[in-house]
Write a structure and sequence with these properties.
The chain is of the alpha+beta class and 81 residues long. It has three helices and two strands. It is globular.
């Protein structure tokens, strides 16, 4: 995949994560064309805890995570000064 802007990769990863089901990084990588390591880094650095929740399933090894998208009903706004 051609390297694109970080914002575009974040959006691709976020759109590949469903609201109603848990998904592995390998499945997200297949949908987006990114490497699973890159997907994990994008999720952990940019999307948790605001947009995605993480669950440790511990199978087949400790540290195996699945992800699910959090419904965002309203954007938080900064109060005016």
């Amino acid at each position: 995949m051609k390297r694109s802007g970080t914002g575009q990769r974040k959006r691709m990863v976020l759109e590949a994560i469903p609201f109603d089901d848990w998904i592995h990084t390998a499945e997200i990588a297949e949908k987006t064309g990114l490497r699973p390591q890159a997907v994990g880094i994008i999720i952990s650095k940019s999307l948790i805890p605001g947009y995605v929740e993480k669950k440790d399933i511990g199978v087949p090894k400790i540290g195996t995570f699945v992800y699910r998208r959090i419904p965002v009903f309203a954007e938080t706004k900064r109060p005016r000064d």
